[in-house]
């Protein structure tokens, strides 16, 4: 019975967890590389092409820009959406031409880049570099790019007004999974020397996240699912604990009852006293007094 109950709880939890399907941020990068490259219908170098995303990712914007690596290093690229590529950005390993893929995660920001304790004041923007030799390639791995002179800057177009009393910070999500915080410059700009994903955030002061605080609808859905999982686990755990307790009490009581019976049996066999039932208990009865009172006569006639 206990086992069946446990199984039900487990199955319930697994079912909830499985309904929370979705890509990891890195799988999304790979998918968006594919969709950004498809924007090169008539590829030209030095022109920004906006791409389309599948309907299940509506709200995300992608773009692709092909550059000769020598040109990128010597001249930079003044304005690629919000990104400013300065002189001196080099890639590794060396390729003749590269594609810079741009992401704007829009309302999917908190779904792919959850950051507990912080509120996003801008969407997450990404800049990733790929080998441009094969524009129909999928599942490409990123090149490393590095700003050897001035840093790359990201001038966010609109920064939500900062919540009371908290200061703004730039956050960068590196491809290796690390998260780095930095200061905001000129009110809306973040600086970086490497590729990755970037946003401006504010620390949440209140312990409870404000309703709609930075969360896109997806983020909220995911959070409520997580809350469900936690609630389910807690209730399930409590139920199991109660069951175990009841079982323990039952076992103990059984054992005590057995011991009592054994003692009773021993008593019945070991003591030759005749027993009689008084109600539900047995009690020894003396049929006759064994030591007869013995009158000590003090009067000796
Ligand atoms: C969206 O659909 C594409 C196919 O059109 C699929 O490859 C991708 O995994 C889907 N993305 C999500 C987040 O479900
Ligand atoms: C870039 O792609 C081309 C063609 O697929 C390949 O020959 C070349 O080795 C790649 N370069 C790097 C650095 O991966
Ligand atoms: C993509 O490449 C990685 C290694 O770079 C590999 O593990 C993965 O299976 C590939 N995925 C697909 C769909 O080809
Ligand atoms: C910020 O805090 C001050 C005082 O603590 C309060 O008067 C003001 O209404 C707050 N503003 C917002 C937007 O919460
Ligand atoms: C983002 O908005 C689009 C509509 O503009 C919607 O289809 C999509 O589901 C939203 N994304 C999330 C994560 O809610």
From TrEMBL:
Keywords: Membrane, Signal, Transmembrane, Transmembrane helix. GO terms for cellular component: membrane. Residues 1-17 form the signal peptide. The chain crosses the membrane at residues 227-252. This is Non-specific serine/threonine protein kinase. It comes from Handroanthus impetiginosus. The lineage of its organism: Eukaryota, Viridiplantae, Streptophyta, Embryophyta, Tracheophyta.
